Predict the 3D structure of the following.
Amino acid sequence: MPLFQTIQFNETTKILVWEITESLEELVSKVVLKEKTQKRLDGMKSQMHQRAFLSVRMLIQEMGFTDKDLHYDEFGKPYFDCHNYISITHSYHFAAIIISDETVGIDMELQREKIQRIADKFTDFECSYLKPEFTEEYIKKLTVIWGAKEAIFKIRNEKGISFKDHIRVEDFSLDKKQTQSSLHFDDLVKDFDVHYEEIKSDNFEGTFTLVYAFEK
């Protein structure tokens, strides 16, 4: 499957989404990996994980980069040697990246009823506006909140940050597709613009939520 969706957010920010329909062999034949990356791929036990990993390489190739341009810091955060920032996510049959001149983070999650059972693990501030009695909206909003906190954590990537205690997502409407969030950690307070939208495919069941955040 070729590129599933491209979102040109602004002049310097682009989001690319890949639907993973290729076999592992097909993906391997289309990317060139450096030795370190090949070892990492060989060490993965799940073929789905391997395919997602390679799909990310397909996405960066779409943007004119190669695996040789992509590096990871000591905390596992991806980066390029140039001025562009990159963030990566994959969920089931989708992989996505965001590349920007700005500091960004991205996350993609399948909307599932299961998230209701773990809501107390990552929400506190947000309980003031969440309405569990409206089940479908509740699941959708929880998925946005989780995705926002995941995206922000990918930006800051600091040990000790708690989704529940340190990251606050302001009240939002699902229709508006944007909200504000803030990180309160040690003596640091950072604000973020958060954007979100739903992704669906004719090939697979379920609705995914794509969330990306910009550090102000």
Q: What stands out?
A: The mean pLDDT is 95. Residues 111 and 143 are 6 Å apart (CA to CA). The longest helix spans residues 135-156.
